[in-house]
Backbone:
């Protein structure tokens, strides 16, 4: 209960930051506050952050495997990015307001034509020098196995020539190298997930920034396949 209360208080603090600071802050200040807030939220939940590798400088599209809603906090704690997320997250209590404040690009996954609109938004952000992050699986998985990638949104990197960087996310705890506590799959609610995380002992999120790929010579499907292969290979090499 202590962790949950601390997390809720910190979420409210985030709302205050978005409402009072962000309208007057420049991009560098907003990014710094997002990184601070995300790292502090992980601390409030007693989730240790373990980072390996270096972020590619300049405009880059981060492609990560997807395990939990904590993934967004973990990536933001490393580097504030413009995430692509399903539109219904905007309706989540507190979280929705924070998502909007962080400049998240929302996609209506049920509408196939919406992908083209989002590709244009991602491309525009990359041309402006932003770091954009998305989960090509389109949903969360259990952790050890990467689900098939949806390649449509990768067209933004090909159109702009921006580098693509694979990001490997893995959660471990005191009992297992792939923790079930952080999983957010099936019919699990946000409240149930938060309760599991609050009960976990020694929970750690490992963020592995793999070397970036140049997009030249790739179409979006071959690029998606190569990134998925590299992320899966990294997970396969993780402790068991």
Residues:
């Amino acid at each position: 209960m202590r962790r949950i209360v601390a997390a809720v208080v910190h979420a409210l603090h985030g709302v205050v930051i978005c409402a009072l600071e962000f309208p007057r802050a420049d991009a560098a200040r907003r990014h710094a506050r997002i990184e601070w807030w995300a790292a502090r939220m992980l601390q409030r939940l007693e989730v240790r952050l373990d980072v390996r590798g270096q972020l590619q400088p300049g405009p880059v599209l981060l492609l990560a495997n997807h395990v939990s809603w904590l993934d967004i906090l973990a990536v933001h704690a490393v580097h504030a990015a413009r995430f692509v997320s399903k539109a219904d997250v905007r309706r989540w209590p507190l979280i929705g307001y924070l998502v909007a404040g962080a400049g998240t690009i929302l996609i209506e996954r049920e509408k196939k034509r919406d992908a083209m609109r989002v590709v244009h938004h991602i491309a525009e952000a990359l041309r402006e020098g932003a770091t954009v992050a998305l989960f090509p699986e389109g949903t969360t998985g259990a952790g050890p196995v990467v689900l098939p990638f949806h390649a449509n949104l990768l067209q933004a990197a090909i159109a702009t020539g921006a580098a693509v960087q694979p990001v490997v996310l893995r959660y471990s705890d005191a009992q297992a190298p792939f923790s079930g506590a952080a999983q957010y799959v099936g019919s699990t609610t946000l409240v149930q997930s938060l309760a599991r995380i609050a009960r976990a002992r020694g929970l750690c999120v490992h963020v592995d920034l793999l070397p970036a790929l140049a997009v030249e010579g790739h179409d979006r499907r071959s690029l998606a396949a190569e990134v998925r292969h590299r992320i899966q290979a990294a997970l396969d090499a993780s402790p068991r």
